[in-house]
Amino acid sequence: MKKYLVIFLSVILVGAAVLLSLPQTSPFMEKPIYIAVAGPMSGTQKADGEDMVKGIQLCLDTVNDKGGIGGKKIKLAVFDDKNQPKTAISVASEIVENKDILVVLGHKYSSTSIAAGRIYKAGGIPAITATATVNALTQDNEWYFRIIQANSFQGAFIAKYVFRTLNQKTATIIFNKDVYGATLAENFEKTAREIGGEIKHKWGFDSEKDDIDKEIRKITAELRTIENPGIIFVATQAEEGVRIISALKSGGSKYSIIGPDSFYGSTFISKFKEQPEEQVQSGYYSDNIYVACPFILDVANENAHEFTHEFMRKYQKEPTWYAAGYYDAAKVAVEALKKSDPDQSFRKKRREIRDKLTNISDSENAVSGVTGSLFFNISRDVIKPFTVGVYKNQILIPTYAQYQMTPIPRDLDMALEKVLKGDFILVDGSLMSKTDVVYTGIDINEISGLDTITSSYIVDFYLWFRYKGEIDASNILFINAVTPITPDNPIAEEKTDEYTVKTYHIKAKFKNEFDFHRHPFDHQFLSVRFRHHKLTRDKLIYVKDTLGMSESVKKKEASFNIGNGWYPSDKEVYQDIITNISTLGIPELFSNPNIISYSQFNAELKIKRKTADAILRNIFPEMIMIICLYLVYFIPYRHFRLRVEIMMAVLIACAFYHIRLLSDLFAVKYSTFSEYVFFTVYGLIGLSAVVSILIFYFELRGAETKTKWVVLIGKIAYPCMIAAFGAVMAYIFF
Questions:
Q1: How many CA atoms lie within 13 A of 391 on its CB side?
Q2: Nearest alpha carbon to residue 675 among 665, 685, 684
Q3: What contacts 559, CB < 8 A, 6 or more positions away?
Q4: 627 and 529 in one domain?
Q5: What is the rounded distance in angstroms from the CA atom of residue 701 to the CA atom of residue 696?
Q6: Helix ranges, 412-548 (H)
Q7: In terms of domains, do 77 and 156 share one?
């Protein structure tokens, strides 16, 4: 009989292994939906192409994890256009002929997008780019959409920023004569002249010529003869821009430079890092270059922080704007796919997807993306302000003044006054209001008084604000302070023509909502959060002072008197958005409450339990109990009393440690991992009790065979029960 049981269990185990090893697909599963991405997957700009893929894949993984679209998974087909128009045409033809592909994301360059766009238009497949900016791409092709601002908008925006916000009087233009550079330069010059700006000089060059370096040397030589060229607008792709700027700044020459969106990416700064001067002195060439960017995380919306966390968790690196932009492109594509009818021919599917994209045409139907609210105008472009950044020590940080979309006010005279002052700018009929940026830093000196019962702790820290203009930056409300805190007199203050810095020393008690679900393998966040008391996010944004803050917490670990069994792990500082909804008592808003958003600054210190302490205090006693209970099955049949004594001892010990745990976490209203371990021990005690009673019962009746069977079943059931518990707990908690 025992032999048959072993055979039966073996069959069960082998069958389970075979089932688990089978592929997770079958002929009866839904056929997947395919999206294509086309970009530079090789060559000098391979890193940008890889970031495009990573951003898209993260979006698709999120959708697939939730069941896909109508039960169908979305798969990504990757194509390499090498950033070459001829290759892009070949790639586009291949995509169009593949009946499974319903929509295309890409290409990176305007030149490759325009070349491929002719094929997509003829083949009737919709395409979405997050990087190609030449106006003709979407104006002449009803199948192409873009979620980045067009060159007409970008050139005009940069001109307004230069002459209205930076208060420059003159400018010089250097541009590549390709379609990208020429349209940027044209729109910059046109807008500059309209608002009274002076264009000192304008040079163009052809990057396709063999003697491009000779042309650049000639341009820089001529420019050096101009006494006051003003700010230099370099309207080129990244690689040409690096050549020009390196030539201009060689020998330590100082020029004020601003560039387009192409200057924000891994290619631009990595090319500078190859220069010997930049390696010796970080920022030798790249410092103080302004860039118009579609996305900078520091001033991004509430979706951006979550996206960044997920991206870093998956890829162990911070996302570039290529990743963010194509994540959004994928999100828009998915929205159109969800609204389309899957039961039709591939040509009709493609056309319907294009129509659904066209219908994303106003704020009510907008897709909430990482880079902003996404909807298309009549030219299938998005309209949203650029974020302006400036390079410092090879890091791009937001400038002191940013712009956000705003409705045109009723008081037009007031609006005109603000336009003239630079508080408003008007581009292509879209009004944008200026938002002040305050660089903010927190340097933690000491953490003490950690109380896990009340989830509170004491933080001693320095807090500083660096800003431009007259801003009451320190009028802040600490969201999670136990008692109100008012920063009074700064311990340090510095004021120059460029900025104001105020530093405060604060020591106070804060609280956070601790999460003990994974206790004792949990980690907690000790946070300090605040927002401005009055100014909403459209007026002021607090951003992390990347250059002024120390990233390391390990060097201060000794002074973090966190508490027994805890140690600091990571420190994170970021801004997000806190939103309130209110009518403000205004009758017109009673049926449509006003959404009030504030920029919230967050500093979080992640702390973890020391593993050895956690195991010794919480897990080790339970392991001893489980081992002792298993001994019950190896005690001779007649020693019933010994079995009972072991089970009672384990029960008392389990109850004691369980009560101790509850006293430590008495404010916690849910069951933790530790509690589930105790529940398992209780279950094992119950199993052992049942087995012992059955052994005693059969032993009294002389049923030795049945006694052996009960013991064997107990010996097998006991570890199986532990294994099942471990699997379930790992699935739930880890």
A1: 26
A2: 665
A3: 445, 446
A4: no
A5: 9
A6: 412-421
A7: no
